[in-house]
Structure to design on (227 residues):
């Protein structure tokens, strides 16, 4: 296992289009997180899964955002009707079930909405 | 909501100089984590501190957790060009242990060789 994989690395889309990102966590990690990072800022929490259950969702996540983690493996983050303000780096991270020993982040998907 | 603040926002040093970044939380933390993000990269976990007053070292990096568990610092001795990047601290979303981390805005370190 080589770590957390995210696809695509870059996405350019027109305003109003829908986009979907994929994250493959480290296989033995039960917890999966989505964060968003804009230039010069720290990552902001979007949502969290424990296995297949979505247990927490940020108020930052409008109705246009939805995330899934079927079967507790990979996860997808969909943004509907994209807006220019959605342009950011979308980071996925995973961590083991027990203990706080840090997140392993993926390389991220950079979204540009034009 | 909980806030994690870091200062300074930017720091430029000559290679060989020391560097320190400070992290303050609006609430008491059960633990604090530090991450490093290289330019164009993603955050990479460095360390976790759990105990009040804890000090941990990783080669030239020294991490401290405050007695009140509301602040932390990262000190780099004799910086090298490989230290370039943004350093983030992060704390759990709630004191009792949380499902998410709240990140500071980071301190960006640049180094003049």
């Amino acid at each position: 296992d080589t770590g957390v994989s995210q696809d695509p690395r870059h996405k350019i889309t027109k305003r109003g289009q829908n986009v979907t990102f994929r994250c493959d966590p480290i296989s033995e990690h039960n917890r999966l997180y989505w964060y968003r990072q804009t230039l010069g800022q720290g990552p902001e929490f979007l949502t969290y899964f424990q296995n297949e259950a979505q247990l927490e969702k940020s108020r930052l996540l409008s109705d246009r955002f939805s995330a899934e983690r079927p079967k507790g493996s990979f996860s997808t983050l969909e943004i509907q009707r994209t807006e220019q303000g959605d342009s950011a780096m979308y980071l996925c991270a995973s961590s083991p079930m027990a203990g706080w020993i840090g997140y392993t982040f993926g390389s991220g998907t950079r979204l540009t909405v034009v | 909501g909980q806030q994690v603040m870091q200062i300074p926002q930017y720091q430029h040093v000559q290679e060989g100089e020391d560097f320190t970044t400070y992290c303050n939380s609006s609430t008491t933390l059960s633990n604090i984590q530090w991450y490093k993000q290289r330019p164009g990269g993603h955050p990479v976990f460095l360390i976790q501190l759990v105990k009040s007053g804890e000090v941990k070292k990783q080669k030239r990096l020294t991490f401290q957790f405050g007695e009140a568990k509301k602040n932390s610092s990262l000190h780099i001795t004799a910086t090298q060009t490989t230290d370039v990047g943004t350093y983030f601290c992060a704390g759990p979303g709630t004191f009792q242990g949380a499902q998410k981390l709240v990140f500071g805005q980071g301190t960006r370190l640049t180094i003049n060789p």
